[in-house]
Amino acid sequence: MPVTYLGLPLSIRRLRKVHFKPLLDAFQRKLDGWKSTLLSSAGRQTLVKAILTALPLHFMQVIQLPAWLIKHLDGIRRSFFWKGKSKCLGGHCLVNWNKCCTPKSTGDLGFLNLNLQNQALLLRLLWKLYAEPYSTWSTTIQALYGTRDVALLAHNNLLSHGLSDILKYLPFFSVSINSLGTDPSQSWRWTNSGIYTSASAYTILFNPRISSPYHRKLWKLRVPPKVKIFIWLLLQDRLLTQSNLLLRNWPTNEGCPCCLAGPLKTAHHLFLDCPLASSIWTSVQQLFNFPTLLLIDDLLAFWLTNRSTLGSEWDTIWAATNWTIWKERNNRIFNSLTKPLFLLEKEIESLVVFWKAFVG
Predict the structure, then answer these.
(1) What percent of the chain has pLDDT over 90?
(2) E strands, 211-305, in order
(3) Sequence-ordered alpha helix ranges (H) in 168-237
(4) Which helix (H) or strand (E) holds 10?
C-alpha cells in the first residue's frame, strides 16, 4: 500500500486506479459546486484554466500520471468547457480538444496540455539532480542509489517505478543542457538565464506551429472574452449553423432563418451573403462613415483586408456586427422574434461604444 504524504500517494510500486480517487473526487466536488448553466463559455474557460487544470498539478510534480487518467481528466475539462457538464457527446465539442490545448500564440484557446505539463514538471527533478547537488531530492537519491548522476541512474535496474518514469525523459533533458564549460546551475539551453523553468520546457515540448498575424489580433480584440471565443469559432467554421448541424445529423431547418432561403446555409451565407447581412454591412459602412467596405468572399479576408484600409477601429465594429447577426439568427430560431434593421444598427453602435469604453 502506498504512503500518503502531503496528499500524494507515494509507493515504490506502480500506483493503481484507486490511488487516484482523491484527485477524481476533487474534480467532482468542484463541478458539483458550480452553477454552470449560468456561465458563459468564457466563464467556463476561466474555471477550467484556473481550477480544473490546477487540481492535478500537485500530483504531476512528482508522479507520471497514467494515460487513462489524463484522458479522463481531459474528458472532464473538455465537457465542462463546451457544455458545463462532466460528460458530453463528441458532437457537442465543437473543436478537437488537442487544438483547444494549442497555445494562444498560434490562435487557439491555450488550455494546458496535461501530458506535456506533467513531463515539464518531472524534468525539474532531473534538473535538480544535475544542477542542485545539495537539494533534499539530490541527497536522497545519492543516499539510496550511491549516485545522482542521471546517466548512471538510467542503467540501474533496481530503480523505483517513479524514478524510472522520470528518467524516460533523459534524452530530451540531455539535448537541453549546454555543457560547454558553463556552471551546471546555469546550463539550461531554453532560457536566457540558463536556469530551468517548467514553462520553457513546456514550450519546447509543445513545439507549436508558427502563428499567423491574425492569431495575435484575434485575442487582442477589444471585445468581451465570450465574443473572442465566438469569433474564434466563426473563423474555423465551427459555429452550429444549419450546415454544421446537418453534419452532426441533428434536426434542423435547412433554410436560412434570416432570409428564409434554402437549401443549405453556411456561416459564409449567414454573415456575408444573406440579404439581411448585406443590409447590415451597408448600414455599418454608413453608420461609421467608412468610405467603402470590400465585400470579399471569405470571412477572414473580409476582416483583415478591410482592416488594412480602415485601421484597428474596424476590429471592434467587425466583431460587434458579426455578434449581432449571430444573436439575431438565434433569436429568430429559438424565440421566434425579429428585430427591424434600424434596431440592429442601434445595437451594433451601442456595443461598439460600450466595448471601446469598458473592455480592455
Answers:
(1) 49
(2) none
(3) 170-175, 198-206, 213-219, 225-235
(4) strand 8-10
- pLDDT for the residue 264: 64
The three cell numbers of residue 40 are 458563459
What is d(CA 255, CA 334) in angstroms, rounded to the nearest whole number?
Answer: 15
Transcribe 291-324 into DSSP letters. S-----SSHHHHHHHHHHHH-THHHHHHHHHHHH
In 3D space, the residue among 307, 308, 229, 239 whose CA is nearest the CA of residue 268 turns out to be: 239
Q: Give CA–CA dist 241/270, Å, rounded.
A: 8
Q: Provide CB contacts within 8 A for 270, sequence distance 6+.
A: 241, 256, 258, 277, 325, 326, 329
Give the helix ranges, DSSP H, for 180-224.
Answer: 198-206, 213-219
In the chain, the amino acid numbered 59 is: F
- For 195, the 3-state DSSP assignment is coil
Give residues with Cβ within 8 angstroms of 267, minimum separation 6: 234, 237, 239, 241, 243, 299
- One-letter amino acid of 162: G
Which cell numbers hold the place of 280? 447590415
Q: Return the sign of the alpha-carbon dihedral for residues 206, 17, 91, 43.
A: negative
Alpha-carbon distance of 234 to 45, in angstroms, equals 17
> 113 and 206 in contact (C-beta within 8 Å)?
yes
Q: 166 near 126, Cβ under 8 Å?
A: yes
**Tally of helices (H runs) and strands (E runs) in the chain:** 19, 2
Bin 84: left if φ > 0, else alpha if -120 < ψ < 50, else beta.
left
d(CA 147, CA 134): 13
Closest CA to 106 of 247, 206, 20, 215: 215
Could you say which DSSP state residue 188 is in?
B
Cell of 185: 546551475
Whether cis (ω within 30° of 0) applies to the bond prior to 263 is yes
What's the grid cell of residue 130? Answer: 544535475
pLDDT of residue 11: 74
**What is the Cα–Cα distance from 120 to 49, expressed in whole angstroms?**
17
pLDDT of residue 307: 85
**Residue of 120, 65, 72, 119 lying closest to 97 (CA atoms):** 72
Q: Say yes or no to pLDDT of 322 above 80.
A: yes
Does the pTM of the predicted model rise above 0.85? yes
Please give the distance of CA 270 from its chain centroid, rounded to a whole number.
Answer: 27
